[in-house]
Amino acid sequence: DAGVIQSPRHEVTEMGQEVTLRCKPISGHDYLFWYRQTMMRGLELLIYFNNNVPIDDSGMPEDRFSAKMPNASFSTLKIQPSEPRDSAVYFCACKVDAGNTIYFGEGSWLTVV
Amino acid sequence: QKEVEQDPGPLSVPEGAIVSLNCTYSNSAFQYFMWYRQYSRKGPELLMYTYSSGNKEDGRFTAQVDKSSKYISLFIRDSQPSDSATYLCAMGLSGNTPLVFGKGTRLSVIA
What we know:
The complex is a heterodimer of chains A (about 110) and B (about 110). Chain A is mainly beta and about 110 residues long. Chain A is built from no helices and eleven strands. In chain A, β7 (about 65-70) and β8 (about 75-80) form a beta hairpin. Chain B is built from no helices and eleven strands.
């Protein structure tokens, strides 16, 4: 398996623009997580899905953030409008239902100027 | 108090040194404990996984859990430059609740 695939790997955008981050989880993994990592706050859980259904979005910082999982092989994290403080690395991760190990993608490096 | 506390470092050691990385936690309900390793510009990957108090060894790595003190450690023996990375502790309540991560400790092993 190719692992968790995220795109884009790097994005630089201007404040106010819409940003869409994409994730393809490992086939057969029932749980999908979106994390944000910064030096100051470390790795923060934003939202997670089980069988494509959002379970907990309490980590989403503001209404500017939204996430969808239309099917088992695809998820998006959208920021609209983006702000400089959204600059971070965004990770998608997944796990199987019966397991504890979370598998991470390589991250999407977002810079908002 | 945060649920998981981890000194961010950075920690710099000479090649061959023994490295000790630590986390403390406040929630006594945590059942399993993990260490993830994150190389620069990469995603975290699982390094060690323990379910109970005591030690678990895997090559040069030893994970130690002390539930009574709410303290976990990762020891690296004969450290190598290739061990240079950020090490994140993580812990969980059950298989279907998200892991709680420490902030990570950045380690540099100097040749």
